[in-house]
Amino acid sequence: MDLEKQSILDSAAVHVVIWLDPSHRDLGRWSRREMGDNGGSFVTVRRITKGPERGGGYHSTHEVVAGSTAWIGKGFSCVCAQGIDSDARLSFDLTPCQEECLHKLQCRVDVAYESSRKEHQETLRSLWYAAYPGVKLHGLISEQWKEMGWQGKDPSTDFRGGGFISLENLLFFARRYPKSFQDLLRKQEGNRALCEYPFAVAGINVTFMLIQMLDLQVAKPRSIVGAIFLNLLSENDRAFDILYCIAFKLMDQRWLAMHASYMDFNTVMKSTRRQLEQELLLENVSRIEDLPSYKLLYR
């Protein structure tokens, strides 16, 4: 049996080897090899998804890391690492369950925040009271919002980067993992910089980064990471929301480890994305809770 092999080398010195087996009944196997500075390496093999092949072959995808500027707010842009487009694309079939889960998530991603919609207004109020229990909110436009890390007194002006789902993510975090949420909101862990990142606006950018990383704005993921995430999403329809909480907590951990300040946010976000991608590629990750950084939510 002849095997084709495609290699990709990214800027993080990660060598991804895709073994393409046209006769295999499942969707291809792939090996990920990380090369250290000392020449050491390890290889893990896993399936991306199950199902019959289409057309007799499979294709690889680039996992090359590059910088692209993403919105974070006035005078504060986020350079998020993202895959580079290529003629080589990951080709695979979605199961009916994956199609349904992906469609539901993409519908959420497509919803813009509208300050005139009652549902959106109530969700924003709910976020306030989840963040500050017992503290009366004076209005949806109020100086109070600045305390949470919005740019001004009207949070609706900050949602253009992440849409309504970014508000849903923040509220989910506050309700599902209240201690971790409060620790980040109040910057209660570690030695902090004098000029810290704004909590709420940073949260919007975490949503935006994940949407990019997982290829959620295209019909079907074009990256291995995006394909793997679909398996996690089919196991847990809240996988994206939980991944958001993990990513936010991991971003803060990287922030502290790098002794970062306001102007370092771009670098911290790139580091966070790379770490998430590496964890999603681990062989033993079959549920969102299997990600090593998941434990940060309970620390």
From TrEMBL:
Domain ELMO per the UniProt entry, residue ranges: 119-280
Pfam family, one: ELMO_CED12
Entry superkingdom: Eukaryota
Protein name in UniProt: ELMO domain-containing protein
Organism encoding this protein: Ensete ventricosum (Abyssinian banana)
